[in-house]
Amino acid sequence: MLRAYFDDSGTDAGNRTAVVGGYVGSDFQWKRFAARWTKARDDERVSVMHRADLESLKGEFTPKRGWDPSRRTRFVIRLHAILKTCTYSAVSAAAIKDDFETVMPPWVKSLFGGAYGWCAFMCVVAMRGWCLERNHSGPINWTFEAGTDGAREVGEMFQALQMPEIRDAYRIGLVGFDTKRLKPLQAADLVAYEVFKHVANQVLDAGNRPKRLSALNLF
Predict the structure, then answer these.
(1) pLDDT in tens, 38-94
(2) β-strand 17-26 against 89-96: which pairing, if any?
(3) Closest residue by Cα to residue 139 from 37, 1, 8
(4) Is the pTM of this model over 0.90?
(5) 166 burial class (0-12, 13-18, 19+ CB within 10 angstroms)?
(6) Phi, psi at residue 162, to the nearest 5°?
(7) Which secondary structure element, helix H or strand E, spans residue 22, and what is its range?
């Protein structure tokens, strides 16, 4: 059984990019991931990993709690190593919101719910290709973060794929939503955040900023 955990990024109204990203792994891999992730968090006295908070040194990652850029870098590298060794693959998709609204016909927007639903569908398509390359015919259980603006669109997208022949073709098993307390969703948060920043810096801002070292390390 494969399980995929995904998060969205860029949901604030002022953000120009919609991103959905996450990881796929086996039950065994996710069990190993959870043990190593918990150890890494406990060593740093962190209860829930929020990549945006870590980046800006707020929330659980304030200077008052001993956090600085050097400690942040060490922690990120450790988490990235866990992701690389305890999952099969990362999958992500991004869309520039204005472009999506301009280019996509109304029926696409209605069918997929919006830019986040479209990005989630692109991840489903990518996972189907991944399975075909590896002759994996079984279903994938999908979990997305609950309560976000993107989650509503993701739910609409999966509703549009309910026909049995479509679910089978795209390897869609169970679909659910959960909070960021679920450790694999914290993993998804890392890749979604890095893809969001990468698109903002390298696409929308035309590479006016150097590529993020954390993105290069993760990708």
Answers:
(1) 999 999 999 999 999 999 999 999 999 999 999 999 999 999 999 999 999 999 999
(2) antiparallel
(3) 1
(4) yes
(5) exposed
(6) -80, -15
(7) strand 17-26
